[in-house]
């Protein structure tokens, strides 16, 4: 009788990482179960479902890994050892570097992997929406800290700044996928910081 089940050399952590790269490159909808199984060493259907439960569950784990590693821009935004402006700028530097790197798929998985989803994949759409919302929360916290510390004036348009930086960060995903260079994006990032500087508290 043929043996079924997981291959002895199966490495679950590595499997999630490989799946992350597939979802990141091709998106949830167009990444097929057969492609995932092939990438994971030719897992049988039974082994795949035993390991991950479903394609959706595997995507959830892959997205969580992305947000904890490559996509963790909140790491820079929440730094308290440097001024809020420096944290915001460093976030832009790291985000542009990551999303234009040739060491992995370009762009942002949280932006690109969940587009054009049919209604039956509403749970996946919610996952990526929540991931993107966490970035807005980190941006809000950074800008709030700048106002509280006096880096930015009390009359700063906080909501406007949040949406401006959030839109720019998410736009990098498309620009990076389209092959726009890191140097070009950094030129835009420096211009963006001029808007921040326009709210700088210059009172001595």
UniProtKB/TrEMBL annotation:
Keywords: DNA-binding, Transcription, Transcription regulation
Pfam families cross-referenced by the UniProt entry: TetR_C_13, TetR_N
Top-level taxonomic group: Bacteria
Keyword DNA-binding appears in the UniProt entry: yes
InterPro entries the record matches: Homeodomain-like_sf, HTH_TetR, Tet_transcr_reg_TetR-rel_C_sf, TetR_C
Residues of the HTH tetR-type domain: 19-62
One GO MF term attached to the UniProt entry: DNA binding
Entries under SUPFAM superfamilies matching the protein: Homeodomain-like, Tetracyclin repressor-like, C-terminal domain
Keyword Transcription regulation among record annotations: yes
Tetracyclin repressor-like C-terminal domain sequence ranges: 95-173
The protein, known as: TetR/AcrR family transcriptional regulator
Organism: Luteolibacter pohnpeiensis
């Amino acid at each position: 009788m043929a043996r079924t089940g997981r291959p002895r050399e199966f490495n679950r952590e590595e499997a999630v990482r490989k799946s992350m790269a597939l979802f990141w490159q091709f998106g949830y909808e167009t990444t097929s179960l057969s492609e995932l199984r092939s990438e994971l060493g030719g897992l049988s259907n039974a082994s795949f479902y035993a390991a991950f439960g479903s394609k959706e569950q595997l995507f959830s784990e892959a997205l969580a890994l992305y947000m904890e590693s490559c996509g963790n821009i909140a790491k820079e935004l929440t730094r308290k050892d440097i001024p809020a402006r420096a944290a915001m700028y460093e976030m832009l530097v790291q985000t542009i570097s990551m999303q234009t790197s040739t060491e992995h798929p370009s762009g942002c998985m949280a932006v690109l992997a969940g587009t054009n989803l049919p209604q039956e994949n509403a749970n996946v759409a919610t996952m990526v929406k929540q991931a993107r919302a966490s970035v807005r929360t980190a941006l809000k916290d950074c800008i709030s800290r700048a106002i509280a510390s006096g880096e930015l004036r009390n009359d700063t348009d906080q909501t406007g700044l949040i949406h401006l930086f959030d839109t720019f960060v998410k736009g990098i995903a498309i620009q990076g996928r389209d092959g726009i260079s890191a140097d070009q994006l950094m030129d835009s990032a420096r211009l963006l910081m001029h808007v921040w500087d326009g709210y700088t508290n210059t009172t001595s």
